Amino acid sequence: MGVITQLLRGRGRKRRLPLPSPLGTVRAEARALHVRLGGRTVLDGVDLQVAAGEVLALVGPNGAGKSTLLAALARDLPAGSGEVRIDGEPAAAWTAAELAVRRAVLPQSAQLSFPFPVEEVVRMGRAPWAGTPAEDEDDAAVRAAMAAAEVTGFASRPFAALSGGERARVALARVLAQRTPLLLLDEPTAALDLRHQELVLRICRERAAAGDAVAVVLHDLGLAGAYADRVAVLHGGRIAAEGPPARVFEAESLSRVYAQPIEVIDHPRTGEPLVIPRRAVRDFAS
Ligand SMILES: Nc1ncnc2c1ncn2[C@@H]1O[C@H](COP(=O)(O)OP(=O)(O)O)[C@@H](O)[C@H]1O
Ligand SMILES: [Mg+2]
Fold it and tell me: Which of 111, 231, 233, 265 has the fewest CB atoms within 10 Å around its CB?
């Protein structure tokens, strides 16, 4: 099919809005995905799915390919070879407008800068719904997202005048306001204090409980262990391990992946795996 035909088709057919799907429906999927950037293989045969109703944590050392994988699942980055599917179709099948009501993407940290007050930044998340029946929910969606991310208090302040952590929460609120069935969050907790890290992961759980699919890049394996249904460990552009945290968080393999001795301890009260670097006993006497 030629480019012109594609454009005509895209215009000719009605924009397809996402439909509610039963829990477990795959919302995004990478199949044998290879991506090369700057002449280097960054993703080297990745198979991964994220489904309605689950929180999937992507973890792994710096440079493992987490952001690249998330961007590929969002179709923000083309697949080299292999395939990305969104809502059961090849990612390329969707128009930009259809994509924007299916998946919301929070890019890594404040590479983001907006010359607007906070509330307008959050309201930008509603743009994809213009001209659809969901437009009626705009005000409620913006209000709810700001309350969830605890940014209502600085609604009228300029985005650029906020602290790094405050900006991160506003950026998250924008993505929440978009109300898509697929959420792709790249290190949403990186700049946040302890309270707000917990808040963000609780929001992820709430969205999953409401039937959305959530993929979230995390460095804190404790957060992943406490909140994720499944964890995928990336290492050198491949999935080194994948499964429930209790199975994936295993000292020997994590130590290898992170090139750092690691201990995994069961939390005495909750039983969740606690992942901590193996440290020498401090000798206070000397
Ligand atoms: N545009 C690019 N050109 C060349 N190499 C890149 C580019 N973007 C990322 N990389 C490289 O790809 C690897 C994976 O990057 P990234 O997906 O950002 O890792 P992570 O998010 O796991 O830290 C890194 O080694 C990084 O240097
Ligand atoms: Mg990254």
Answer: 111
